[in-house]
Amino acid sequence: NLEWFFDDDLQNNRSDVAKQQSSPSREEWEWKLNIAADAIAKMKPTILALQEIEDRSVLQSLTKVLKERHN
């Protein structure tokens, strides 16, 4: 569970709660993204299920960071 894994872009958040839980800045979002990628890479999962992710764009960002930092 990535727990409110939302980027810093508020424009595509549909609810007030999502807007409140989004990363407050680009720097914080990138930190959160890198920490999650590092933790996933350390586990070396064969199968990975994720929940509480904002949308496909956020999942694609996580995938990109995993490939760039841990491929």
Secondary structure layout plus pairing:
Elements: H1 16-21, H2 26-43, H3 56-70
Helix pairs in contact: 2-3
What this model shows, in words?
The chain has 71 residues and is mainly alpha-helical. The protein has helices at 16-21, 26-43, 56-70. α2 (26-43) packs across α3 (56-70). The protein is globular and about 35 Å long. The model has no long low-confidence stretch (mean pLDDT 91).
Question: What keyword list fits this structure?
Answer:
71 residues, mainly alpha
Q: Which stretches are poorly predicted, pLDDT < 50 over at least 5 residues?
A: none
Terminal CA distance reads 22 Å
Instruction: Write down the Rg.
Output: 12 Å
Strand count, sense and barrel status of the largest sheet are: none
Portion of residues in beta strands equals under 5%
Order of helices and strands: HHH
Helical coverage, percent range: 40-55%
What's the total number of strands? Answer: 0
Average pLDDT confidence is: 91
Q: Structural class, judged by helices and strands?
A: mainly alpha
- Which descriptor suits the 3D outline? globular
| Count of helical regions | 3
Summarize the structure.
This protein is 55% helix and 0% strand. The chain is mostly helical.
